[in-house]
Design goal:
This is Lipoprotein. Keywords: Signal. It comes from Atlanticothrix silvestris CENA357. 32% of the residues lie in helices and 29% in strands. It has a domain of 112 residues. A hairpin with a 2-residue loop joins strand 2 and strand 3. The protein is α+β, with helices and mostly antiparallel strands and 169 residues long.
Length: 169
């Protein structure tokens, strides 16, 4: 099949038109595009506030070693420290202290709290988390085993050096 010069020009023109039309058609948003846009625009939660307490200052405020239990520190960064609580090699709970300066919504959940642990406002989050607010610091215990109950979580929160945490600047 031999194309004449006119056919070649027409084919090139039609191909150009098709490419132009498809290139200028607005892209249909994907299912994650809106979430990506919202998270990119958020200012809170993206960075730790400059005035947040260094995580290393929290370590000494965790409960002292208890007979039969082992604490394994797993994370320490500005504004946060975390340890796993183990007994006989089994992970029972996660213990954490965080500075709510960077996450004001974390502190806001305590405003309507009627429950107190060791004199501080407390909240239960689901069936596995208990937390208190000590000044600007949140102390949280999360059950990692079904045998570790809400009562156990409250007991372990009381074992933190809460008076020392209240004095921390």
């Amino acid at each position: 099949m031999i194309l004449t010069r006119g056919h070649k020009i027409l084919a090139a023109f039609l191909l150009s038109v098709v490419l132009l039309i498809t290139a200028c058609t607005p892209k249909t948003p994907g299912r994650f595009d809106q979430v990506q846009q919202e998270s990119s625009q958020q200012k809170s939660g993206q960075a730790v506030a400059k005035q947040a307490t260094q995580g290393e200052k929290f370590n000494k405020l965790f409960p002292s070693n208890q007979a039969g239990y082992q604490q394994v520190f797993t994370q320490e960064k500005k504004g946060f420290a975390e340890a796993k609580l183990k007994k006989d090699g089994k992970e029972l709970a996660t213990l954490a202290i965080s500075d709510t300066t960077s996450t004001p919504t974390a502190a806001a959940k305590f405003s309507n709290s009627t429950k107190k642990i060791a004199g501080y406002p407390a909240v239960e989050v689901g069936k596995t988390q208990t937390a208190i607010l000590v000044g600007k610091y949140q102390v949280k215990v999360l059950s990692r085993d079904s045998s570790f109950t809400a009562s156990d979580r409250a007991d372990w929160i009381k074992k933190f050096n809460l008076a020392g945490l209240a004095k921390l600047k």
